[in-house]
Amino acid sequence: MELAMSKLFSPIELDGAPLLHRVVMAPLTRSRAEQPGDTPGPLMREYYAQRASKGGLIITEATTISPSARGWFGAPGIYSDAQVEGWKAITSAVHAAGGFMISQLWHTGRSSHVDVTEGPVPVSASVSPAYWEDPTHLTSTPGGWVQPSPHRALALSDIAGIVEDYRRAAVNAKAAGFDGVEVHSANGYLLDQFLQDNSNHRSDAYGGPIENRARFLLEVVEALVSVWGPDRVGVRIGPGGRWNDMSDSDPDALFGYIAGSLNRFGLAYLHVIEPRVQGNIVVGEDRGPVATQRLRTIFDGKIITSGGFEPDTAEAVLDRGDADLVAFGRHFISNPDLPERIRNNWPLADYDRSTFYTFDSKGYVDYPPYEAVSQVA
Ligand SMILES: Cc1cc2nc3c(=O)[nH]c(=O)nc-3n(C[C@H](O)[C@H](O)[C@H](O)COP(=O)(O)O)c2cc1C
To answer: For 39, which of 64, 81, 337, 376 is 20 to 30 Å away at the CA?
Structure first.
């Protein structure tokens, strides 16, 4: 039965893109960029083309802004000419299917290893040896999963250079044919390491009070807006997110401040990860979408919510008016035709966690669309 009255399948304009539905593909790191060079190739093109839909929005996997921003073996970049060419082929395929695509820009900060950066020591807001000493923190390197390398605190004089790396990546995203950019400021990567006070112990203009901890993110947003204009820039945050050893003494105040400060730009959207999901794991199965509801009262623009949504709870969060769009992560991995499945109330296929971050086509481009499944059966 089709969801005829569904909000999920009502049109909305986002990023200047006339979307025909609100089932967004969430950013999903899948480690399939070609090596050496972290270049998006034909395999990635096939994967994204499979997931493109008419009037649908795809947010790319986290994409590194510079060689020293890298921290995950197999993740693509957007700083070299070859990477821009690779992405061009992908955005063309998504556009040919009538879809839209946003590039998620990433600096991994301390969640990295010198084998991935190929030399440069990982950086963070402050030095936290407990992070690299904890055997449960693992990062993907050419030699497999290992504990991150020791990191250093960014000097005050380093910060402008990283803001410039974001700006250049945004210019490249334009050349690559994207429809906009999203700042990855969640899940314990560099910008989140500056926001949350368990990882930021600085005493300069980027540490201490919330306004200082948010400064780096706001400077990055300003740089991206200078390239794209505000209505093509989104920001992803994880209020209360603890993934990657994050925590904050007052997350409501921190993320409320961020949502309020972003209002002055008039951005395309705020993308909120519900705290019931930590990274790629659900930790609060029965918890409702609390962060979205709260930030709705603070942020003036459109909200994409994400984290642990099913088709019915996604419909409900839109019905309540708490969000404008819903991003799905894991369901999009195993259901390339997710919008059609939801629209028609077809069953969803299960994902295989063991192939999330492997390096070939298995578990990547071999999940069939529903109609193909039903014809074979
Ligand atoms: C395999 C995998 C990779 C992910 N990679 C990213 C990423 O690159 N950037 C990001 O912001 N979130 C990433 N996430 C988090 C997802 O975007 C999403 O927030 C999370 O999966 C919860 O949504 P879901 O319950 O619909 O899966 C990843 C999640 C998974 C499962």
So the answer is: 337
